[in-house]
Amino acid sequence: MAHTNVALIGFMGAGKSTIGRGLAARLEKSFVETDVLVEQRAGMTVADIFALQSEERFREIESEVVEQAAQMRDCVISCGGGVVLRHENVAALRASSIVVFLDVTPRAVIQRLRPGSRVRPLLDTDDQETRVRELMEQRLPAYCAAADITVQTDGLTVEQILQTTEERLKQL
To answer: Is the dihedral angle over the CA atoms 20, 117, 114, 86 positive or is it negative?
Structure first.
């Protein structure tokens, strides 16, 4: 299958949804968000899946929707932050997509997420900064291994990130 999709990976708060919408408009592709597909399939929010079922159940549904999204054509796919934790997700995305890692520092993530936010189940802790750093450290090797392109996002506007990403895609 040709690489007609662009898949955006990266940590929560990296800007995958915002950049994904903008990139889809610029490239005249459909926009797909895996967390939205998970919520539609489960009939509940991501936070509720974590609370009422488990993170493992969330990851199972996520793998199903990533496989579904990867089979679409001409899409920009915004992936959940932990999508790289399962090899089958990365394989499915790489088969149909150019994978773009939106890299962000822990400091930027913490600034972007609302203080005390409980919307992100994995950050439902009193010490969000430490948790962000731990998760990012664990996931960084997987993000790097999965990515065809890495775009540093810190200190850049949405427009600058879009321009950089589009330029990097044209170079492939």
So the answer is: negative
For residues 143 and 153, the answer to whether their CB atoms sit within 8 Å is: no
Residues paired with 8 in a beta bridge: 78, 100
Rounded (10°) angle between helices 16-27 and 158-170:
50
For residue 99, the Cα-to-chain-centroid distance in whole angstroms is 10
Query: Is 0.85 topped by the overall pTM?
Result: yes
Say which CATH architecture domain 5-170 belongs to: 3-Layer(aba) Sandwich (3.40)
Residue that is written with structure tokens 């399962």 in the block: 86
Q: Give pLDDT tens digits for 81-122.
A: 999 999 999 999 999 999 999 999 988 887 777 654 445 555
DSSP code at position 125 = S
What's the pLDDT score for residue 117? Answer: 47
